[in-house]
Structures are given as C-alpha cells and as structure tokens.
Amino acid sequence: MYEASFRLRGKTYDYKIQYDAIKKFMVLPKPDELHFMLCIGLDPPLRQGQTRYPFVVMQAKKDEEVTIDLNLTDEELSQKYNGKLDAHYEQPLHQVITYIFKGLANKKITSPAKDFMTHRQQYGIKCSIKAAEGFLYCLEKAFMFVPKPATYISYDQTASITFSRVSGAVSALSTFDIQVVMKTGPSHQFSNINREDLKALEDFFKLKGLRVKNEVDEEANLLAAALREEAMDDSEEEVVGAGADRGSADEDEESVDEDFKAESESDVAEEYDSAHESDGSGSDESGVDDEDEDEDEDMADDDDEEEEEKPKSKKQKTK
C-alpha cells in the first residue's frame, strides 16, 4: 500500500490501483464464522483480457491477529492524515486492513444491515447465481452477492422483488428463489434460499419500501385449499357409500335363490325318470323273457304314477 495507490501482484497479474478508483468498501462476515470478506468496489473496473472486474474480494481469517508498524512519521500521521491512521496496530488482520484502507482512501466502511439476520442468526444468506454458489448480504442501501460473480444491486434501482418456487425441483418444498427486477437493465435471480429465511427477508424488504410479491405462500395456500377440498369430497363419498339405500335387492336375491333351488330339484328328477324310461324301452327291443317284460311293465306303471304325483307336488311348491 502506497501513499496514493495500492498494488496487487500475483503469478499471472500485476495491478496498480489508485485510491480514487475505490467507490465502495464492504466488510462482510462469512457464515462459517471463521472468515471475513473484504469487498472493494472499483470504477473503472479491473480488466483482464475482455473481462471486467468491478470488485476485488479479499478473505481474512477472523482470529488471525497481526502486529504492524506503519512507516510514517508522527508528523505525517497528524498533519496529513489527521489522526485517521495509527502508527501501530495489533489487531485481527481484517480489522487492520480495513482501518488502513479507510485512512488512506478516506472511504466509508459498509457492513450488513442490523435489521436483518437469517434463521441461524447470521448476516450472509447461502444461495447461488446460476451454477455459482455464494452468499447474499442485505446492506442498508443495497444487496451484495459474493464471492463470484460479485454483484451489487442498489435498492434505489430495484423495481420489484418476487419470491417464487421452482416447479419440479427436488428441493422445491424447502427452498425458494428471489427474482430482482431492475428499473433499468437485466433482472437478477438468486436460487436455492432456505425456506426458513422467507419471512425475515419479506419483512426486511417491506421495511426498505420495496415492492414484494410472495408467490411461495400463495402457492402454499392454494395447495392447502385444494387438499382440504379433496379431503372433504372423499369424506362425503364415504358417507354416501355407507348409507346408500339398496332397496329390495337383498330380498330379490333371496327369492331368486329359492326358485332356482326348487327348479333344479324338479329338473333333476324329471331327467332321471326319462332316462329310466329309455332304459326300459331299450330292454324291450333286446327280446327279454316274458317275466322280465311283466316286471318292466309293472315298474313302468309305478314310474307313471310317480310322474303324476311329482308334478302335483311341484305345483304345491310353486304356490
């Protein structure tokens, strides 16, 4: 870090950035509670080939303390920086970097809004932009998504915010999406946000005076109403089915059974008699003895008498 600029050096890059190019400086606690992310907004942005990078994102461990002495005289500290810098620092690394940038660049430090926290009492909301996972922070005047692609969205440029659920997704019941429609320019969508953070986000956006449409709760209410109607229809069908009047169906079935039984008995008897007569006639044709013929005639007479008696009994049963 120099008097009027700072320098970034790596294996494949070397950038010298003027402090005047710094437009924003944000300190964002990471939800893992082990790191802090420092976001520096630049205008003009850094360029690497055809790609522009409007933000530089740094990460420092939360508990990593350092001891630093600035190579500035007491006269320079008091006259030039007017007490904005100290000669000696012995603090966590992210705080030292923040204080030095604030003193040299004379920029305001931005942190997450105190009015919003997740259901786990954290400031960062885990979500994703397309396939890139990261964290969304609600600042006092804007959204900030980090680390990549670092995206800054001002509330003043936001036309509306819609909470929606992705249909057909495996985790559709436990997550939802946020679509931020801009007054000018393309909209932004943040996906896979925990369902438990919906209420807190909605209250915070309304507090900031943003237009909010909650399609998630609307779908849930419609689904619940449909399930209630279906349950009521099923219960009504069960009651109607159990109390249906069958009329004389049972009596008809019993009478049919009785008639069927009586007819079957009489039919069997008649078939047996006719078969027996055919046997007798067959014996006459075969030329049997006279005694046998007399016996057959007597049996035939008996059969005729039985035939006369049985129709009578059938008529009695029919009556």
Please, could you describe this protein's structure?
The chain is of the alpha+beta class and 319 residues long. 39% of the residues lie in helices and 32% in strands. The protein contains 6 helices and 16 strands. It has helices at 74-79, 93-105, 198-207, 215-242, 249-285, 290-318; strands at residues 5-9, 14-18, 22-29, 35-48, 51-61, 65-69, 88-92, 109-110, 124-129, 132-138, 142-146, 151-154, 158-164, 175-182, 188-194, 212-214. A 4-stranded mixed sheet has the order 5-4-3-8, with helices on one face. A hairpin with a 3-residue loop joins strand 10 (132-138) and strand 11. Helix 5 (249-285) packs antiparallel against helix 6. The longest helix has 37 residues, at 249-285. Mean pLDDT is 79; it is low at 281-288 and 313-319.
